[in-house]
Design brief:
globular; alpha+beta
């Protein structure tokens, strides 16, 4: 017993002595403090080591196969990697918060775990519902600040107008050319080697037949004139051009896969293949050109034009060529700067629509960081969504900047409108170079007070212009810009084609062998239906515009003193005109008739009609016959844009800030005489309609 007590006392002394000595910090984590994720990872790795140790040959084969699949299939999962890359900041934020919660959650008591869990759920819900929106908001603002923007002082002019809509071309190709086992790529508007402009597309095996997709190549290019009213798909516009890489082919022969493999290590995490074009290099040679999107920036990357990958026509490849295609893909990379040194690429339509659309959306910040804020939207704009139209903005067109130092070439055009969909005026025109070079050109129509209608409202204007047309089966589409110098002044029109539905869904339509084409004046909203005989001769379009709209642009003035005196005498029958003490003048403000009189009666006709009420002005009803069932009908008839536009007018300055425009609205073949007076008041630098008077 004594020996036992002596040993116990000695052990206690040793423990006390060790406790008094300084101990090194214990940096090891006890097993009970390690997370489940740690043990899961440890057990998986232990199982793999055990399996590899017992089956060395099989493990080696599986490792090599896995490495092969990862390398050869890298283009297939690249979109997932780029998705993480695009939202890297949100991903890092989510991982960081999740790691912090996992650390705190295990050490907390029940009440603490409940609180942490609720906070974490709230954080996840916030990221899900608002994270992407906030991220895109900041991304767009950052992009807008980095743009090299130039505001144009005058309109450019369009050339090489395409007549058939894109979706009409798709439908016509299916109807007139393709066999059951063939499909054609999307038609692209581009320049040929001879300087003409065509719709070009390639033909290959139909996606419906997988065996043909796996065994055949893309074997033909179709290129038809875009400026001709009737597309010609005959043999003279079909070219033998074979590509063993294509949009309709399978596995490594698919364009997106082959180009994805061709990207270098850095490009792999920053570039993605986008749209495919078939462009003539010259001497009958064609190239498949794949545009690239570059995600520029680390934590908030934004899409910009990254250049192109060019794939030449197929030449029989040996075994080494096949291995190269399987492992390294196919294509030659050209940066945006290098494109300017390659004649067949310079000035072409190459930029992905995703890039230019992102740039157009960034113009929502024209009025500052808060402009697109929900509930505010001061100066906010939108890209109009055109109903029943398969070709959304941008519209690709050739623009000639004759007096500005910018290249004349293909541009992506966006006509931005106010954010409120009920407001359909043209706010801003954007011109983004199709080859991805140069500055961002724009015209702020709202700031210039151009009073142009936007593309959203053109369809209704066309339908109104021919109400007896069969609009159940037909409808206007693709309201693209047409800018020309007509009658000594650059003018803005919307060019549109009337198409016919060919299926019940309305997704397929054609413009007809010789389509109906309209031009709508963006300022006065008048529609001109081009004569079919003029369609092959663009120079005749401007003559027809001048003939039909010249009266709207340069309205006549009544100079007959006797007629003016008669009008003045009739006006004295109203109490308002008795107070008038001014004298007749011979000068109108510059552009007054073009800017105020006719636009008000055409663009804002409904607003003008709303003024014709007894509450607004009882005097206007004095001259209406007593047997008129609805007094407003006659006023509406007299004030209609067509009625007013056909009549000359006189004018009278009430004082230096008030102006009366007097129309003789006497009915023809009757003894009834009447006049309508539009009364304008000057406010700052403009005139506003504030009253309508009538006498008869």
């Amino acid at each position: 017993m004594r020996d036992y007590l002596d040993d116990l006392e000695r052990q206690n002394k040793e423990i006390a002595q060790r406790s008094a000595e300084p101990q090194p910090a214990n940096t090891e984590i006890r097993d009970e403090d390690k997370s489940r994720l740690y043990w899961l990872r440890k057990n998986i790795w232990k199982s793999i080591k055990n399996f590899a140790g017992k089956n060395k040959v099989l493990a080696t084969i599986l490792f090599l196969v896995g490495l092969y699949v990862l390398f050869v299939s890298r283009a297939a999962y690249q979109p997932l990697i780029l998705l993480v890359r695009r939202y890297l900041l949100l991903v890092l934020l989510f991982i960081g918060v999740s790691w912090w919660v996992s650390k705190k959650f295990g050490k907390s008591r029940l009440r603490g775990k409940l609180g942490i869990g609720l906070l974490y759920l709230g954080f996840c819900a916030f990221l899900w519902f608002f994270g992407k929106g906030i991220y895109e908001y900041v991304r767009l603002y950052t992009h807008f600040q980095k743009l090299d923007k130039v505001e144009l002082t005058e309109l450019p002019q369009t050339q090489f107008e395409r007549i058939q809509p894109l979706n009409s071309m798709r439908t016509l190709v299916k109807q007139e050319l393709l066999t059951d086992t063939e499909s054609a790529t999307d038609p692209r508007f581009n320049r040929r080697s001879d300087g003409t402009y065509d719709f070009s597309m390639a033909v290959g095996p139909s996606p419906r037949y997988k065996v043909q997709q796996a065994s055949k190549n893309m074997y033909k290019v179709i290129s038809v004139s875009a400026t001709d009213p009737a597309p010609d798909f005959s043999a003279k516009n079909q070219y033998d051009a074979e590509f063993n890489i294509g949009e309709f082919l399978l596995f490594g022969k698919r364009t997106s896969i082959a180009v994805g493999k061709r990207l270098g290590p850095i490009q792999y995490f920053n570039y993605q293949p986008s749209e495919v074009f078939f462009i003539e290099k010259g001497d009958g040679d064609w190239a498949q050109v794949v545009s690239l999107i570059q995600w520029k920036g680390w934590f908030i990357p934004r899409p910009v034009f990254g250049g192109v990958m060019v794939i030449d026509e197929y030449e029989k490849e040996g075994f080494d060529g096949t291995l190269e295609r399987i492992f390294l893909g196919k294509g030659t990379f050209y940066s945006p700067e290098e494109i300017q040194d390659i004649p067949y690429l310079k000035g072409q339509n190459l930029v992905p629509e995703m890039v230019t659309t992102f740039t157009a959306n960034s113009f929502r910040f024209q009025e500052g960081f808060l402009a697109p804020l929900p509930g505010y939207h001061e100066g906010d704009v939108r890209i109009p969504a055109l109903k029943a139209d398969q070709n959304k903005m941008p519209f690709v067109a050739f623009f000639d900047f004759d007096k500005d130092p910018y290249d004349d070439k293909l541009y992506h055009y966006y006509g931005l409108e106010p954010f409120d969909k009920d407001k359909q005026a043209l706010n801003t025109s954007l011109f983004l170079a199709g080859d991805g070079t140069g500055k961002v050109l724009y015209i702020d129509h709202a700031e210039r007070k151009d009073a142009y209608i936007g593309s959203s409202t053109v369809s209704s204007k066309i339908i109104e212009s021919r109400k007896n047309y069969d609009w159940e089966k037909n409808y206007p589409v693709e309201f693209r810009p047409y800018m020309r110098e007509v009658d000594g002044e650059k003018r803005f029109f919307w060019l549109s084609t009337v198409v016919t539905k060919v299926d019940d869904s309305g997704q397929g339509f054609i413009g007809g062998s010789i389509p109906e084409v309209t031009l709508t004046d963006a300022r006065i909203s008048q529609v001109v239906w081009l004569d079919k005989g003029n369609l092959p001769k663009p120079e005749a379009w401007d003559r027809q515009l001048k003939d039909e709209l010249g009266g709207y642009w340069s309205p006549g003035q009544i100079q007959n003193n006797e007629q003016e005196e008669g009008i003045e005498e009739r006006l004295t029958n109203t109490s308002e005109t008795e107070e008038r003490s001014s004298t007749q003048t011979t000068t109108l403000p510059d552009g007054f008739a073009e800017t105020f009189v006719y636009p008000i009666l055409s663009q804002d006709f409904e607003a003008v009609k709303s003024m014709v009420t007894p509450t607004f002005n009882p005097l206007i009803f004095q001259f209406v016959e007593s047997n008129e069932a609805d007094p407003t009908k006659k006023i509406h008839r007299l004030l209609s844009p067509t009625n007013i536009a056909e009549r000359e007018f006189s004018y009278n300055w009430v004082d230096e800030n008030k102006l009366d425009v007097i129309f003789d609205t006497s009915a023809e073949n009757t003894d009834v005489e009447s006049v309508v007076v539009l009364r304008y008041q000057k406010e700052e630098d403009t005139f506003k309609l504030y009253d309508i008077q009538a006498a008869g």
